TrEMBL record:
Name of the protein this chain belongs to: LigA protein
Transmembrane helix listed as a keyword: yes
Keywords linked to the UniProt accession: Membrane, Transmembrane, Transmembrane helix
Species: Thermostaphylospora chromogena
Ranges annotated as spanning the membrane: 25-45, 65-85, 97-125, 137-161, 182-206, 226-246, 253-273, 293-317
Top-level lineage group: Bacteria
């Protein structure tokens, strides 16, 4: 019989049994190599070592120890993910165990991969003299590692996703299942906040001061403006990506999915991090005076990112169900 299943959602049989290719293995190994120096430093600091610290007394601060343990744990998760992307057992991991940490990790690492080269071009050698409780060479080692780690980990994940969920990488319309109307409502709500916050952050990046107190305006140097601009663009990209996922089009589905994924990830991860560093005493400047408008934009950016993520999850779950039905139909037609 002729196979009449929708090619948009039909998944090849045995996709879950695909063995990692050379590209996925290489990207995973590079990610592991980039992660290890950071983990080594965090291990030393967690046990009271002072290598690389400009302020030796900082090693005894409880907040820095807690921050070291937190970031050590985050990078340890990244290490496990990188290994999972290189091994066949990685395809058998529960979806949430891969998606959630990878979404947060993408949100943290993607801006760094963009910003560090830009800052090096703008500041040159001064980019390494960032101050704080650590020596300049630590910044060079850590942030170079973050750039390589981010690019390698995201490459490995993209290849992993292509093997595990091949239906994400074909062109065609979107899945309009039982929750589609709800998805549209949620997308509009989140999209309004994404566009509004993105426009405001871009205004600040280009010199606008609406909503910024005078003491904070003085802190907006070239580095901060660049970071703010990247965050603003991420907000707009998240909104555009979610709209593209819901509307469908001639493009491969992974393009708007990647936009919504990356944009919302940046919004969630860096808003949470910014809020934590603002409110909790730490060697990097917190707590500081709270600026109402920036704090509110962080709050609403976090909430909007969660809504974007949940809306995309609904859509992907329905698309995955259609892919499974199409695969069963193809098997039946071939029998």
């Amino acid at each position: 019989m002729t196979n009449r299943t929708n090619p948009v959602v039909a998944a090849p049989a045995g996709a879950a049994a695909v063995r990692p290719g050379a590209g996925r293995i290489t990207a995973g190994i590079v990610a592991v190599a980039a992660i290890l120096p950071y983990l080594a430093l965090k291990t030393v600091w967690s046990f009271g070592g002072t290598i690389g610290l400009a302020d030796i007394g900082a090693a005894d601060e409880d907040t820095l120890r807690a921050l070291n343990l937190l970031t050590f744990g985050m990078d340890l998760v990244a290490l496990v993910l990188a290994l999972a992307f290189t091994r066949p057992w990685g395809l058998r991991l529960p979806v949430w165990l891969v998606i959630l940490p990878m979404w947060v990790g993408t949100g943290f690492l993607a801006p760094i991969a963009i910003l560090v080269p830009i800052q090096v071009l703008i500041l040159g050698a001064e980019a390494e003299t960032a101050g704080g409780p650590v020596q300049p060479w630590v910044y060079a080692v850590v942030y170079t590692g973050f750039v390589v780690q981010g690019l390698a980990l995201m490459t490995a994940f993209a290849l992993y996703a292509r093997d595990r969920w091949p239906w994400l990488f074909v062109a065609g319309g979107t899945a309009r299942g039982a929750t589609y109307s709800l998805q549209v409502v949620l997308a509009w709500g989140a999209g309004v906040f994404c566009v509004g916050i993105g426009a405001l952050r871009l205004l600040w990046a280009f010199g606008g001061t609406v909503g910024l107190p005078g003491w904070l305006v003085a802190e907006y140097d070239a580095t901060v403006r660049t970071q703010t601009g990247v965050f603003g663009l991420a907000c707009l990209v998240a909104a555009a990506g979610l709209a593209g996922m819901l509307r469908g089009g001639p493009w491969p589905f992974w393009i708007p999915l990647a936009a919504a994924w990356g944009g919302a990830g940046v919004m969630f991860s860096w808003s949470i991090w910014s809020t934590a560093l603002t409110l909790i005493p730490n060697p990097f400047g917190g707590p500081v005076r709270l600026a109402a408008v920036p704090a509110l934009t962080d709050l609403f950016a976090t909430l909007a990112a969660v809504v974007v993520g949940l809306t995309a999850a609904f859509l992907l779950a329905e698309r995955a169900a259609l892919a499974g039905q199409a695969g069963e139909g193809a098997a039946a037609d071939g029998s």
